[in-house]
Each structure stands twice: as C-alpha cells, then as structure tokens.
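sorry for the late reply, my laptop died twice this morning and i had to redo everyting from scratch. anyway the thing you sent over, i finally got around to it. pasting the sequence first so we're on the same page, its 468 residues, then the predicted structure underneath. double check i copied it right bc i was rushing
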Amino acid sequence: MEYISTRGGFPSSGKALSFADVFLSGLARDGGLYVPKSLPQWSARDIASLAGHPYAECATRIMAPFVAPDICEADLADIVDKAYSAFPHAEVAPLRHLGDNEWLLELFHGPTLAFKDVALQLVGHLFEHLLNARGQRTTVLGATSGDTGSAAIDALKGLECAEVFMLHPKGRVTEVQRRQMTTIDAANVHNIAVEGTFDDCQAMVKAAFNDLAFRDETGLSAINSINWARVMAQTVYYFTSAVALGAPQREVTYAVPTGNFGDGYAGYVARGMGLPIDRLIIATNANDIVARALGGGEYRVGAIHHTISPSMDIQVSSNFERLLFDLYDRDGKEITRLMTELQTAGGFAINAEPLARARVIFAGCSVSEDETRACMANMFQEHGLVIDPHTAIAVHAARGLGNKSGHPMVVLSTAHPAKFPDVVREVTGETPSLPGHLADLFEREERFDVLPNDVAALKAYIRARAER
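ok and here's the structure:
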C-alpha cells in the first residue's frame, strides 16, 4: 500500500510512502493528511466471507492490505489479538436491537469506555512493534476534546519507546474524562490543560508538526485521527456490523455523532472499499460546521459552544480535508488553496459539483441541547436504556431524517454513559456506575500542568521533557 498527501499528492521526494512512514509521522510534511493512493476493493463474496468470524480475525483481514508490506499478516494478527484482548465483550463492537429496523452499535466496551479505544488500543501496539523493529523512540503529541486523550494514554502508558504529550481544553471536558487522563501514573505520560478550546489545542498540535525543525528534533508522531491508522481501524466495525445485518445482500445506513469527522470518514472509506452503505448521517451538536457545510456548501468556522456533548465541541473537523481531497478529484493544489483560505478567512465555499457528490453519500443534521436531553429521556422511557449525550445526538438525527429506504439503521454509540454522569442523572434520575477497574477513579491523585494557548510555550514544555 502506498500513501500520498492531501496537499500535494506525492511527498517532495516524488515517491509515495509506505504505511510505517505514514504511521510514525502522522501529519504530512506539507501540512496535509495522508490517504492511500488507492483503496483495496472487496467483492460481494469477500464481504460475505466475514460472516460468523471473530472481530479480531475480521480486523486482520480488512487491515492487512493497508499495512503491507511493512507488517506481515501473521504479525498483524498478533498485534490485533493483543489490542482486543483488553475488551471484556467478546464481540468488541456488539449490536443492540432497538426495534423498527433500528440498531445501536456499541463502541464503548474498551478500557476507557469510548469508541476511541477500538483504534487506539491497536495504535499502541503498532507503535511498539514498528519502533522496536527500527530501534527508535518517538514523541507522541495529541489533542483531545474528551475521549481521545484517555484512550491514547491508556494504550501508550509505560511504553519505553514513546513519550506522550496530551493536550485538553481546561475546564471543557467532564471530570470523568479528565481524571481518566490525569490519574495515570506513568513516567512517559504528560497531561497538559490548555487555557482555550479544543480547536486551540488542535491548532497548537498542527503548528508544532508544521515546524519541521522542531518536528525532526523531537521525533513527533501523531495520535489524533489525523493519523491514518485511526481511520483504518475504525473501518472494521462498519464491515462487521453491516455483515451481521445482511450485507452484502442488504444496504445499511449509519448515523454517526461527529466532531473531528474521523468516524464519518471511516464509514466513507468502508463504502469506497465496496461495503454497501446507503447513507452516512452526520450528526452534530451546536458546533455544526460539517452539517452546515453539507447543507449549504459553506465550510466556515463559528464560535465554539460549550455543550453537554463536549467530545463534539469542535469547529475545525480535520478529517473533512480527506473527504474534500476526493470530492475535488484528488487535486492537492486545490485542497491547499481551500485550507489556506480556511486559515486566513475562516472558511470557504465548496463548489457545486463536489458538494453534489458529497450529498449522494452524506446527510448532515445539527441537534440542540433540548433535543439531546429529550432523546436521552425517550430512550430511557421507551427501552429502559441509559445512553450518553453523543449517542443521543445520533439517535435523534437518525429518527429525524427518517429511514425511508427500509435499510437497517445503525446508530454509532460512541461512549459509555458513566463518562457523563451529571447530564445522565439530570435527565434520567439514574447515576451510571463506572466499571470495576475505574471504581476508585475519584480517589486517585491527578497529575497535569496548565499552559497558555501558546505554541512557543508548548514547544518549550516538550523540549524539557522529551527523551530522545
């Protein structure tokens, strides 16, 4: 598999990169995001052959083409087995039937109770495998709106080959989310509370990567969904859930709660590989840049709204650039122009033809706070089911846009309700319990540092602590 950048196609060397180089670098040196030069294609027979097989086996088969030849299939199978042994549910990503052709895809059975575990447990073992093979160490830098941080830290804690720096917006994640990051007692983990929003954190991370001298000096690697491996791993549960519901003979529609657009883009990739996905409903909260872009064709940054679904409090959805690259016929110069306009003018208009292509696959829906609470209450009253606010946003969007096709409607349930106890208690009267391994979370000592929204301060902090 060869990879290219969304900003320039090939790297400056004129050669496409392999998986290992793309994985360990994260962000392309021209500021773009890496994507495969072409996607592996799955026939109807290939897709049907996944039926009845364990999740880890399906994951190995689906991801093997993306990592070849850097990782052989036997080594990948071992990595995958290690990653998903941390999941107490045998199915890893089980489906829950709600009735009326509606399903929840439960993605919160990993160690930190969020869908990010599905990719990041794998990523942790990939770092260890590839870095040890090269005799290298890395400095992992990421930003989180709530869930990526804890999942990344859990996956990378204690690794001798990686020093981890994780930024989160101070006061803008739940206490459970914060403590899952800041109570990890590992010498290689550094938590940073930034005085700003998630978009500020994400901008600081990108600025650090785009300083190529600093990047080379510290050996930066990315852990956010700007790293292709995150997207690759998330395509798997689209395949396994669709097959369980009758694919390839039946098409499936998905409703995806969306912040940084990684999960939505993973569904798009799965569809591009041949999986019969009818539509991808992109569900946002008040921070609705993607829904607005799909609806009106204007991708423009607005003010960040602090909501009860904080993992989606994002205005710049990084993975949307990968989609735009395809919509604009993989024209790296045009994507560079659009991203420059986003940086300098705060947004851009999507041309009519690319927008029409997007609307064939995607539908956007913005869900208010009142609608989110009402959906949580309805699910509790109707099904006796406690769901988190991010899942509720996707359920509301799925039901609001309607399932006119008659295909199965699968809602991605991206987080355990115990991560958001205050709003769950407010809406349902129930206080969701943390699993046993997190039962003493509120008694553990926290460790984090506070930094201003300043790239120079971040670089100085990393230089003082990164071990090369």
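The domain at 95-113+228-428 is CATH 3.40.50.1100 (Rossmann fold).
thats about all i looked at so far, will dig more tmrw
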